Amino acid sequence: MPTTRCLLPLSLGLSLLELSSGSLPRRYAALYTSTRSRLRPRALHSPGKLVRMKKEGEEGVVCHPESSICRRVKTELCFGARKIRELETESWYSPPVWMRNPHVHTIVAALARKTPAIRFRRDILDTADGGKIAVDVMLGLNDTSTNPKVPRDEDKWLVLTSGLSGGSQDSYVQSMCKSAYEKGWNVVVLNMRGCGQSPVTSPRFFSAMRGSIDDLKLTVRHVREKLAQKTSNPTVASIGWSMGGSIVGNYLAFQDSPDFHLSERIQAGAALAAPFDMILADKSLNRNSFNRLVYDRNLARKLVTMINQHVPLLERHGGVLGMSGEVVDVDLEALSRAESVREIDELLTRRSFGYPTVDAYYKDVSLRHRLHKVASPLLVVSALDDPIADANGIPLDVFRENKKLLLVATRHGGHLGWCDSNSADAAQQRWCAGWVENVSLKYLDAVLEDAHHSCTH
């Protein structure tokens, strides 16, 4: 679910003015009660405490019982930190009461989240197929008076990948940029082809894996060889949301193969609101008329708008570029009328990236089928009430078997939500995701510190 303005039906569109007041308008009470998620996880702990998940469908933490990370997960949120003891005081996530409906939570996060503006420098990278990807390097915050420049650690680099059709302009991405920047990270954002106003110079867009893995490899290599020149062995981590989270997870599963150069490796990652099973996610988008109108149709409209901007390029080439360099014919007229993500994947994505059917594409990109191969630390944060990334797809057994994985499942959060209560400075930022940002960044710091300690002893 992208965080830019959605074209919601008027009867369902939430007024930004009313949302900014911090209370749920009375006329949306019926929406709150009528669209409750069918998944109702039971609370397993009191607020402020974190416990191991004992039953499927309950919130908590799941990891291998003998992993170094799991041994340090007791009753507080302590993710393998040897010295970062402040993790123990991190409280468990609890949303504002009126955001406990996943649809309300998701919509508020998409429409009303506000973060301080970020200053970027855009680097354009050339791809092997003649295309270009835009990598935005964070330079700082626009308002330096209230947020003075924080000293950079030249060794620490964080690559962010957004959800479907998103980019560095999205509020949840910029919110993470701010949090990571304030913790000393150097931050770059990968904008997938055609997203974030990035140029499209070859007739190829993006998928949830093929092509996108190569573009992420190019970005990581750019960070190591160009951006981090002052250090010989920089630490590179990555955080992705939704589809971007699937890309990060799949990347970690692939990077021990011979196809990856050492300059393309990332040491740790985090996947937030990632759909483990894309077939289930597709069914979630079409579960009822609400999901079809509010989520699926609006995602499709945004994708179609982006694609239509590049129709002349596709017409000049006679179609889209396949994975082997061949030109694949696409019905551009039908594509311009597509009203669902599945239609777009049928008409464009699966053809361009060499899949026989849409379901074959969805099965191949599903993170649950590749998690067991992950050999680097990976944090996965999922909301059990996510209306898009269906929690029934979470492969709990894999998290219990792979020592490199850690699952944090919250009862609430919606899709790309995890909104905090508004801060006192609501004019500058509101409905930000401070909790999930702190958990993700502290996890990365903790596991990377442990890795460094292991290498020096």
Which key terms come to mind for this protein?
9-stranded mixed β-sheet, single chain, disordered N terminus, 457 residues, two-stranded antiparallel sheet, globular, alpha/beta
Structure notes:
The chain has 457 residues and is an alpha/beta fold. Helix content is 33%, strand content 14%. Strands 1-11-10-7-6-4-5-3-2 form a 9-stranded mixed β-sheet, sandwiched between helices. Helix 5 (171-182) packs across helix 15 (434-455). The chain is globular. The termini are far apart.
Please provide a brief summary of the model.
With 457 residues, the chain is α/β, with parallel strands linked by helices.
- In quaternary terms, these chains amount to single chain
Structural class: alpha/beta
Number of beta-strand segments: 11
Order of helices and strands: HHEHHEEEHEHEHEHHHEEHHHEHEH
Radius of gyration: 21 Å
- How confident is the prediction overall: mean pLDDT? 80
Let me know the largest β-sheet: 9 strands, mixed
Q: What portion of residues is helical?
A: 25-40%
Task: Specify the overall morphology.
Answer: globular
Task: Work out the strand percent.
Answer: 5-15%
* Unreliable stretches covering 5 or more consecutive residues: 1-56, 73-89
Q: Compute the number of helices.
A: 15
Strand order of the largest sheet: 1-11-10-7-6-4-5-3-2
Gap from first CA to last CA: 44 Å
